[in-house]
Structures are given as structure tokens and as C-alpha cells.
Amino acid sequence: MAGVVQGADGEKMPLGRRIFKRAFVYLLDKKTDAFFRVLRRRNPVLVMAKANLVLVTRFHDVEACLANSDVFKVGYGPRIDAAVGCFMLGNDNAENAQHKAALLRLLSRHDSQRIRDIVTDASVEKLSGIGNRTAVDMVSDYSRYIPMQLVKRYFGFTQATNDELLSWSRAMQHDIFHNRDSETHIHQRSVTAGQAIRVSIRTEIARRKKQEAAASDDILARLLRCQNEEGNGFDDESVVTDLAGLLVGAIETTSFSLVNILQELLARPDVMLMAREAAAANRDALLHKLCRELLRLRPMNALLIRQCAEDYAMVGVNNKTVTIPAGSRVLLCTGSAMKDEDVVAEPNQFRLDRPDGHYFIYGSGSHLCLGDKIADIMLVEMIKPLLLLRHIEPLKQPDFDTGPFPEHYLLALSR
Ligand code: HEM
After folding, report:
1. Order of strands across the sheet with 72-74?
2. Which of 104, 72, 250 is closest to 172 using CA atoms?
3. Which of 69, 178, 228, 376 could join 404 in a cystine, given CB atoms 3.0 to 4.6 angstroms apart?
4. Which residues, judged by CB distance below 6 Å to any ligand atom, belong to the binding site of ligand 1?
5. Which E.C. number(s) belong to this protein (predicted)?
6. Domains, the chain, ranges and CATH?
């Protein structure tokens, strides 16, 4: 879970606080749903003044805080800036919002078929050798590989190898969103990755600028074409930052989400049957709803981190006012909000009739995921060929190898 309790590398912490921190992290990581359920009932806005930390767990509170970026500001800036430069998720200024809108226009909805084709090509390639009970590591051989192909063919990363792209994206995701103790070596790895990626993109830009303007139509080419339009803010360095930011956003998030969807599907034979029928009938809209509901039950990310800019009053249990102090680090527990029994009917049941507004899988408010539509297409197209196989069976639970991301997930696949 993202950098929730701070304490810089090597910092000495009193024993009592160390024990408290361990217990807190255990509850948050290992007993997430039960912990959130208790908090929603007993202490929905939990203020831990000594740790300078606040947890917000109820649906309407999480929604309100995410909508209020004047008070609840993103705090990823220093880590993002150090890796890729001044990217939209780094802070809440109007310039970033404008830039996001311009970038969104370039990630055109008309690209849906193209995205599908890229994912299909990559999944066919990866599944071509499947025979009877072939063991496949879904992470290294599928869920990371496919978004990486999108990064190369749709975003326009042509200068880097697969291994480079994966290690850069993982290093930066780790530091920006999961470096909970601000460990120096994790931060340094991200800075080094950011430097390498920026060199690679600058080389690509220089190469593109020597080419015919119409030579390619990926996101990088579109960004460069936009430079000729006045006032859009896409100078070379911002193009470098945007492309690097897209890489960070795309790979581990999609990979992690696919692993979670598969885990939930494999634990629910009735839903698996429904999904197989939907895949056979090419019912993409149904498959999308199904993936989204499975991700609500097991989200890739159960909380979003914000910094509170001013004292902020909220309503706690028995209508008592709880004040979030200015300067607190606030964990907006979207994983809890999506299971808030006061708003979400039968929150632990799989249901396809929920309103769109009950899902925070891609966040909410001004930092709503830039790639949500792309990710939706990818997830459906990645899961479909697996559902069309004769048999899928888990061989082991996902292995995180002490890190924040699934590194291996061994399944037996039969054609
Ligand atoms: C299933 C896959 C994905 C999931 C679950 C996911 C989730 C999220 C979430 C929860 C946020 C909000 C972070 C916050 O408010 O603190 C976010 C932001 C973002 N995502 Fe995604 N994401 C996914 C795929 C992608 C892809 C494919 C891209 C690239 C096209 C992308 C690019 C971004 C960017 C650039 C932001 C920052 C937006 C902003 O600051 O306004 N994501 N994502």
C-alpha cells in the first residue's frame, strides 16, 4: 500500500511507535476489509495526531474529499518531479489541469480498435504455445507484457528494450506510490530510472524531428505535432515528462488489476461461467462490468493519499465533529468506500447492477485516472482469450517477492 507511514531511512523510532506502526500496517495490509469495516462503524475519520495521519473510510466522505482538491491536495510532487519532472499527478495547479485536458484529447476515443488490435496481437503471441495444462506465469508472460506492448506501439516508446521499460516503470511506481518509509535506495532507483527514460525519450524526439511529420501516429507523434499549435504548452521537456508519466501509469496498474480479476474469477465458479459465456458471445460491455465489479471486490489500490491544506471538519460517529488538522497526511480509503454498507448494497456480493458512481477503481475528482478508458479496453481484451481457453487453474497464489507488486502468478492453461 502506498507510502502511508513516514519515517525516513534509518530514522530511529521509539519502541511504542514501532509496535503501533507494525500493528497498523498489518491491519491495513492483511486484514484490510475487516479493519475498514470496524473503522466505518466506530471511527470513520480516524485521526492519529502523533503520526500526523488520518484515515477517511466512509463512501460519502471519501467522495467529498476527492472532489475537494483545494483542501485535499496530491502530495506525490517531490517524488514525481525527481523522476519524470512536473507531471499532472504531482500537484493541483490549474496549469496541470489544462495540460491534462489537452493530453486527454490526444488519447482519442477513436483509437479503441487500435488498442484492441495491439492487445490481441500480444495475447495471441503469448498464448500461442498453450497445450494441455501448460504452466504460465501470468505476470512475467502476460499481464506486464501486454500493457508494455501498448506503451511501445501506441504511446511511441521505440528506443527502449522490454527489460528497460519494465524496470523503469516498476522502479518509479514503487517509489512514487509504495515507498511507505521513504527509503532512500527505492527513491534513488526511481530517480535513476527517470533519468534513463528521459534520455531515451529525448533521443526518440530528436529522431522523430528528422522524420516526415506524418511518418507515425502514436501519442508521441501527436504531441510533437501539437507543438506547432500555439499556446498548448507542449514543449520538448513537457513531452518527455508526459510520455514518461504515461509509462509509469500504464504497466504495473494494469498488470496488478488483471491478477486481481483472475484471482476473484477463479474463486467464483458461477461468475467464471458467466464470463466465459460473455467472452464466447463477444459481449464486451458485460465483460467490462464484470471486471469492474471484481476490481471493486479486490482493488489494485485500496487508498489514495492526500495532504490536508487547512483544518477541515467532518462528521464522525454520533454526529460528533472530527477535525482533520492542516498538514495531515490523509488516506482516502477508496477500497473501504466501495464496500460501505450504508451506500453500497450487499457490498461483499458480486452484483452487476451497481451504479457507475459506486466505483473508485480509477480514483475520482480532478486526478481521475487519465487512462481509465484505455485500461478498460485492455482488461477486457486481456481476459477474453483466457476465458476462451478450455481450462484455467491456479497453481499457486500470486507471489509478491517482498515488493508491492505481484511478480509471479502461476496458472495451468489448457487449449
Ligand atoms: C487497471 C489499470 C489502472 C488503474 C487501476 C489505475 C488507477 C489509477 C488511480 C486510482 C489514479 C488516481 C490516483 C490519485 O488520485 O491519487 C490514477 C491516475 C492516473 N493514471 Fe491510472 N490506472 C490504470 C491504468 C492507467 C493507464 C493505462 C494509464 C495511461 C494511459 C494511466 C495513467 C494515469 C495518469 C496519468 C494518472 C494521473 C491523473 C491525474 O493526475 O490527473 N493509468 N490511475
Report:
1. 45-48, 53-56, 329-332, 304-308, 72-74
2. 250
3. 178
4. 74, 88-89, 100, 245-246, 249-250, 253-254, 257, 300-301, 304, 361-363, 367, 369-371, 374-375, 379
5. 1.14.15.15
6. 15-414 (1.10.630.10)
